[in-house]
């Protein structure tokens, strides 16, 4: 190549410059477009979910003055102070008494549209304050599913007319339903709640974290800092990497075959669910943990070893604290995936209808994503809004969990 | 073979005999013997890649951390072979401290950096003793006056020269017998370098000091004994004044006069 004159060189550079700047502008535009698109999708998701979910946190309720004083309810006050006052009230016939008192207040047609489980809410109030039995008191009880549809303008003309009539008298209205957060699964969308599934998810996540985090971190530390490099450790490394890519339903099958064979009575239990999800989460923590440990500068290890720290002291005093932010990032990702997981939990029986919140790690339970899956499968229209509300609860749980992890990560963040 | 000058016999702290170091198949150090005494600062000089740092790292077995590194020959610390089986490396490193090329303070407070060694070795029994030890080490490292009011600040927030002196304080807090310095000033500016060199002069006699350096001027300034390494061999060893004024080997002369390196 012959040498260019200074002028020619400048010309050539200038000619290419326009092209190079163009490429840069195009790349930036594509990047901006990609970010904008994802932001748009996220915003759309949040807006539709929230607008649906607002309805899910409400329900149609009949409001009236319930008077039990003249009723035939025979109950000993000492029974109300006992272990199971709700059981006592049921035996005493509270269900019929409430039905009767409602008919007296609102008429037979409206009383027939009281939700069949509504008496339980009266029972809870009475158990809390037995004095209510002797006087009239204001209640707001769930309407039947039919009447709730009627209030939305759906269903038979008779139901719609009844709903309109009651609404005009202010006896039927859509009210905010805080009980959604404290009740559990039910057959009617009017009386379902999310607490059972939420508590189940919390217990399951606790088990998952308690198992996957220490095992994952110790495995990562051992493989990265202590294990000899040979064919066996290579094999283990490949296996763990592959484990992270195994479809989740396979882990469900494993949990079914392994854990439920050993502990057959703990079907649907958060303990088994947590163990199954821990299998799935552990490889993610190992992989991110190893990368975080690898990223700690070797000079820190040298410094610790040179003052006479033993290898274990070097790891636990210096390497691991510096790697912790990275380890926590991996844990967040793994736990978030576990929290949203449905398929493996279906396999170990967590799709059962569980109407009471789990009392412990071994009692039958549902979890949020499975509950959402089950409700979304319901034909009943009332469940659509409840499903959205459950999704919001799941998202908030996720945000809280990640928020805690990010807070911890920032606290441990160290610069070197 | 090494050309050795006639030297007054030193009471050897470290005595190396026929030491060779291999990285896999590659021989990095070839049959080197040397005595390191208490009363002198010994400098290792030589061009890049000549193996002087590798040799230095055999004295506290830091080469153990490198996969495939292998040491042959015998290195005795106070008459005990440090490569014999059953030698506790942790104990060895408490007796042979090291300062690295790049300052590497822990990302913890200044106090914690210095207190770490005494703490893990259980050298102090009370908080007051530990405070004393930290103060003494920082004073000896010539850093006390600069940091005494901010001991809780991060060690990494100090300037490069201060960080290196902090690393020296960290090493001497364990009260080692030998201090190995691997090009301690190569990342520092001339003023910080001068401070470290002053410090080395002050520490001389209290600890046996071995310093690897790229700078011949530095070797001339701080050391009393100099060993010249080339291609894994120790070419010449003698009094620093003689090595620099009257080298016996052609290669030493060429290196010192800047012909290569």
Can you characterise this structure?
The complex is a heterodimer of chains A (416) and B (261). By secondary structure, chain A is mainly alpha-helical. Helix content of chain A is 67%, strand content 5%. Chain A is extended, with a radius of gyration of 30 Å. The radius of gyration of chain B is 18 Å and the shape is globular. The longest helix of chain B is centred in the middle third of the chain and has 14 residues, at 127-140. In chain B, the strands form two sheets. Chain B has a seven-stranded mixed β-sheet with strand order 1-11-10-4-9-8-7, with helices on both faces. Chain B has a four-stranded antiparallel β-sheet with strand order 3-2-5-6, covered by helices on one side. In chain B, α3 packs across α4 (127-140), α4 (127-140) crosses α6 and α6 packs parallel to α7. Chain B has 261 residues and is α/β, with parallel strands linked by helices. At the A-B interface, α13 and α14 of A face α2, α3 and α6 of B.
Task: Present the secondary structure layout.
The complex is a heterodimer of chains A (416) and B (261).
Chain A lengths: L5 H51 L1 E10 L9 H4 L4 H7 L2 H13 L1 H5 L5 H11 L7 E7 L2 H7 L5 H12 L3 E5 L18 H32 L4 H13 L4 H15 L7 H25 L3 H9 L4 H29 L3 H5 L20 H9 L5 H31 L4
Antiparallel strand pairs in A: 1-2, 1-3
Chain B lengths: L2 E2 L7 E12 L2 E12 L3 E5 L6 H7 L10 E9 L2 E2 L7 H7 E4 L10 H12 L5 H14 L3 H4 L12 H13 L5 E5 L7 H14 L4 E5 L3 H7 L2 E6 L2 E7 H6 L4 H7 L5
Parallel strand pairs in B: 1-11, 4-9, 4-10, 7-8, 8-9
Antiparallel strand pairs in B: 2-3, 2-5, 5-6, 10-11
Structural class of chain B: alpha/beta
Strand content of chain A: 5-15%
| Unreliable residue stretches of chain A | none
Helix and strand pattern of chain B: EEEEHEEHEHHHHEHEHEEHH
Strand arrangement within the widest β-sheet of chain B reads: 1-11-10-4-9-8-7
Helix content estimate of chain A:
55-70%
Number of helices of chain A: 17
Looking at how many chains there are and whether they match, the oligomeric state comes to heterodimer
Going by helix content, strand content and strand pairing, the class of chain A is mainly alpha
The count of DSSP E runs of length 2 or more, i.e. the number of strands of chain B, is 11
Q: Tell me, rounded to a whole number, the average pLDDT of chain A.
A: 89
């Amino acid at each position: 190549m012959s040498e260019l004159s200074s002028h020619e060189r400048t010309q050539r550079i200038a000619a290419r410059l326009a092209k190079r700047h163009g490429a840069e502008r195009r790349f930036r535009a594509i990047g901006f477009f990609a970010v904008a698109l994802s932001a748009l999708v996220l915003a759309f998701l949040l807006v539709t979910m929230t607008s649906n979910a607002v309805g899910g946190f409400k329900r149609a309720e009949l409001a009236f003055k319930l008077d039990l004083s003249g009723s035939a309810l025979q109950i000993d006050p000492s029974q109300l102070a006992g272990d199971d006052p709700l059981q006592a009230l049921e035996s005493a016939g509270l269900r019929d008494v409430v039905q009767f008192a409602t008919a007296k207040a609102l008429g037979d047609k409206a009383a027939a549209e009281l939700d069949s489980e509504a008496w339980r809410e009266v029972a809870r109030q009475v158990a809390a304050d037995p004095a209510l039995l002797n006087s009239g008191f204001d209640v707001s009880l769930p309407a039947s599913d039919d009447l709730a549809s009627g209030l939305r303008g759906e269903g038979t003309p008779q139901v719609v007319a009844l709903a309109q009539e009651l609404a005009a008298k202010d006896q039927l209205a859509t009210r905010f339903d805080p009980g959604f957060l404290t009740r559990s699964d039910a057959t009617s969308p009017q009386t379902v709640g999310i607490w059972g599934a939420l508590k189940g998810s919390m217990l399951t996540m606790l088990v998952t974290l308690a198992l996957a985090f220490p095992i994952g971190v110790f495995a990562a530390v051992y493989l990265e800092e202590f294990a000899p490099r040979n064919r066996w450790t290579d094999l283990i490394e490949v296996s763990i990497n592959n484990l992270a890519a195994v479809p989740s339903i396979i882990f469900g099958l494993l949990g079914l075959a392994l854990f439920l064979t050993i502990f057959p009575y703990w079907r649907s239990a958060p303990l088994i669910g947590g163990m199954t999800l821990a299998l799935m989460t552990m490889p993610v923590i190992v992989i991110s943990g190893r990368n975080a440990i690898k990223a700690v500068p070797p000079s820190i290890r040298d410094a610790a070893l040179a003052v006479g720290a033993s290898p274990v002291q070097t790891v636990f005093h210096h390497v691991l604290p510096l790697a912790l932010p990275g380890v926590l990032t991996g844990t967040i990702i793994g736990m978030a995936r576990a929290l949203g997981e449905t398929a493996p939990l279906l396999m170990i029986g967590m799709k059962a209808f569980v109407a009471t919140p789990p009392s412990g790690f071994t009692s039958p339970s549902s979890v949020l994503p499975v509950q959402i899956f089950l409700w979304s499968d319901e034909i009943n229209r009332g469940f659509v809004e409840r499903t959205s509300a459950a999704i919001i609860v799941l998202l908030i749980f996720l945000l809280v969990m990640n928020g805690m992890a990010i807070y911890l990560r920032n606290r441990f963040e160290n610069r070197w | 073979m090494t050309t050795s000058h006639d030297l007054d016999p030193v009471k050897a702290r470290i005595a190396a005999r026929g030491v060779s170091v291999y990285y896999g198949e590659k021989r990095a150090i070839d049959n080197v013997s040397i005595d390191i005494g208490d009363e002198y600062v010994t400098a290792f000089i030589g061009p890049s890649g000549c193996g002087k740092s590798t040799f230095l790292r055999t004295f506290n077995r830091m080469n153990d951390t490198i996969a495939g590194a292998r040491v042959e020959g015998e290195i005795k610390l106070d008459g005990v072979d440090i490569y014999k089986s059953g030698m506790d490396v942790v104990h060895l490193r408490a007796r042979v401290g090291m300062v690295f090329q790049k300052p590497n303070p822990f990302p913890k407070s200044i106090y914690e950096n210095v207190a770490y060694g005494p703490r893990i070795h259980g050298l102090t029994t009370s908080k007051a003793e530990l405070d004393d030890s930290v103060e003494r080490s920082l004073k000896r490292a010539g850093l006390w006056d600069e940091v005494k009011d901010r001991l809780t600040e991060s060690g990494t927030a100090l300037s490069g020269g201060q960080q290196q002196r902090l690393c020296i304080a960290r090493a001497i807090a364990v009260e080692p017998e030998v201090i190995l310095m691997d090009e301690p000033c190569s990342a520092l500016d001339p003023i910080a370098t001068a401070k470290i060199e002053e410090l080395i002069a002050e520490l001389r006699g209290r600890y046996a000091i071995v310093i690897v350096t790229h700078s011949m001027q530095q070797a001339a300034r701080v050391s009393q004994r100099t060993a010249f390494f080339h291609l894994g061999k120790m070419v010449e060893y003698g009094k620093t004044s003689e090595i620099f004024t009257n080298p016996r080997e052609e290669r030493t002369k060429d290196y010192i006069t800047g012909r290569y390196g």
